[in-house]
Amino acid sequence: xxxxxxxFTSNNRSHSSRLLAIWLFLIVLPALVLMxxxxxxxxxxxxxxxDRLKIRMLQEMNDFRSKLSFGHMLELKMRDxxxxxxxxxxxxxxxxxxxSDRVQxxxxxxxxxxxxxxxxxxxxxESVKPTFxxxxxxxxxxxxxxxxxxNRASPDDNDYSRWKGSSKFSRSIKYFRNLFxxxxxxxxxxNRVVRSYSGNAELGRLLFFAIPLADSGSAIVVFREIDIxxxxxxxxxxxxxxxxxxxxxxxxSTEGRQxxxxxxxxxxxxxxxxxxxxxxxxxxxEEFLLRRVSKGxxxxxxxxxxxxxxxxxxxxxxxxxxxxxxxKITGQAEKAALLLVLLSSVVLLRIYLFGYGSGLRIRSRxxxxxxxxxxxxxxxxxxxxxxxxxxxxELEKSEIDQYLNLQQDFLNKSLNARIDFEERxxxxxxxxxxxxxxxxADQYLARWIKNSVAALILYSQDEREKTYTTDPNEKxxxxxxxxxxxxxxxxxxxxxxxxxTPQGSDGSVGAMNIRIKGLGxxxxxxxxxxxxxSDKAVTLFSAFPVFAENxxxxxxxxxxxxxxxxxxxxxxxxKTYPEFLKNEIKGRYRVRSxxxxxxxxxxxxxxxxxxxxxxxxxxxxxxxxxxxxxxRSTAFWSDENSxxxxxxxxxxxCIIIHTSERSDTTASPVGAVFLPAxxxxxxxxxxTVVFIAKILIDPIDMLKQGADLVxxxxxxxxxxxxxxxxxxxxxxxxxxxAAGLYQRELLTSYVSQDVIDEVSSDITLLPxxxxxxxxxxxCSLSGFKELSLSSSPEEIVTKLGRLIEIADNAAVKHGGVMxxxxxxxxxxxxxxxxxxxxxAIAACRAAxxxxxxxxxxxxxxxxxxxxxxxxxxxxxxxxxxxxxDFTLIGxxxxxxxxxxxxxxxxxxxxxxxxxxxxxxxxxxARLRFIERTEIKGRSRTFPLYELxxxxx
Length: 952
What we know:
- Helix content is 47%, strand content 21%.
- By secondary structure, the chain is of the alpha+beta class.
């Protein structure tokens, strides 16, 4: 019965309402929303940016002020090249020439101690020679040697302590001071600028810089401040920006003294110009003003002129630094949006006038539609994503700044708690000592000091005193001895019974007849750790009375003094709580900490004394540490990728710095914003294509209807389409496909899958073949001839049908095909696919499955199976004009048929395999040797092996 043929027609015109909706909702409105909302969002966020900008301007101003220092400028220039100075110089004259040339500042004097010969040479500029009447080589050599020893010595170095206490050292120090007629001792440090003032008018203010020369040499370079011009200092400070978008500059104010009041350090003003530029103004630093007023002398020569034209320093923020970073692309984005709206309008108008059935390829039409429909939403999404990335970064930075402040506060409280803990331990110690005799107290204190972080204990009772320490060289210095004497005397005189109070003395009498003088001061300080500065380090000490047990209102039984080094307390604290030095990862930031114990007032210790987290650079944050050291307060620093909070712990004389640095500073915005946006765009395009394809809905609808009919098994369908594009050949291909599917459906009932594949892939249908490796399985029902004589034709067909069904299922399951049925024998073929050599295993599994299937259902029926493997010819066998048979011929086919005949000798499974197949199994099979017998076509006897099972 022939099915009715259906014909479909198409109209390539599009509805005007659909085009208008696309123009409005996919082009015009997104463009308007993009421009308006994006501008609104940027304006909202620029208020926050302005606040951050002012903070950066204040940081820039503080740095500007700090760099308007002659010593700071000279130290930066000298430290950058100190290694080169040491390497390129050989004596004082050559060093003076090199320094003057590279630093561009005239050198007044150089004292050079050769590290190899230890010879001393010196250089004096012509302008200062008259001030030096005589120079002692010996004294200068001693002074330079002491400078090297001081730099190399540790705080507890006994050799340096002896050297420092020697008369040789004292004379050299005194000589160097007198050489320059300096006001006060000149305490030089290597690679640091030290300032001093000379009583000689020709020298004035001096700047000293000490350079290390190997291990045993050093050099001192001396500059006069008057030789450094204000223009040179101003140029150096002006060009050393912290932030590239901020500009430094100078200005003059004619407001006189009023400007000094209004623009002091605490009264810095922000002004906005008409062009939007913000200017932060402040009075120049005192050092800069002093030099301008005095011109390098001690007389205020230009005081009136300076007040009338007061120098100001300014930080200028251009309009670009106040705007959101995305503001730079908003203008280009608006122009691109307008251009896109115009192009999309032209395309839609052309579709409305001429339809979409044109000579354009479908790919071109889809590309135009995708661009027109998705580029504006994509731009909006991209802008929003970029804004969110910036906002998220600022928010994360704000949170990490707050976290640093919280860490600083928490650490200060923890250190105070550590000091309180030591004070409680001292209170407990006083109570225990009140119950002990002198000998018992002596033993107890010897044990107590070993388990404590205290450096020294001085125990005084009556006329006896004893010192306890774990370091034999530890002792009280002169300052501490004076404080000890005052403390002990105050305690003894302030707290004593009324009976021992001299008659007629003034004072307060307590309820328990205890005479107390200076009650408030005593109660505030006794038993608390007090700060003092020794020659080596900052120390804490406490002096407190010890009362006999149950006699607290009598005079003190003894007095004890305990001394601590603040550095030891800090080390012990960090040993107990190492988490304060661990690197932390907070989002994209790495948080580090550093503790800098102070040894000398207003001087930073060497970098190796700092206790820092791994990767922390003390040199990088030295400016912040110096600022905190001078102000004894908290300082904050921040830029785009890092932040730092530094505080000063007054009781422990320690600078604590917490820093955060972005761990992905090299990540580009493309990876952070645009790549995810691009991925989103690709996904959006793939989704949008489905909707854009509705422009060609009619042809697609026809193809869909035809496909639905074919899917239902109705292959005799025909589609007629004339569109001028790829749909026309597509319709022809569809018709050919339907016809081919109909033919394939008919063939599948008669031939194997290999035949169908061969017919589909080879349109010539000419005889031919190729050599392949394969395993062939012949299987039949044992005793079929006897069965055919005793059974009806229906029963025979049923049994053969069952054999064919089981064999076909087993072949398909294991990747083979059922090639043909020869009388009562089924031929299965397992070809080698690419380089896979498991086809022999697949053939054996299929044979075992067939045998097992009959054993499970009908044990009266046995299957005889022969399996052979080897090279064979696979292809179409027949004539050019006659019937073709797609099969396999060759030695494995003949051998499998002959082995099947011998299968009755296999008592267990009835499966005989050839040696070639056994080799391909590679030991995965369990076999049983039967016998050697003669096989037709073989000149020698052939071994028979029964396949019992396959191992996993």
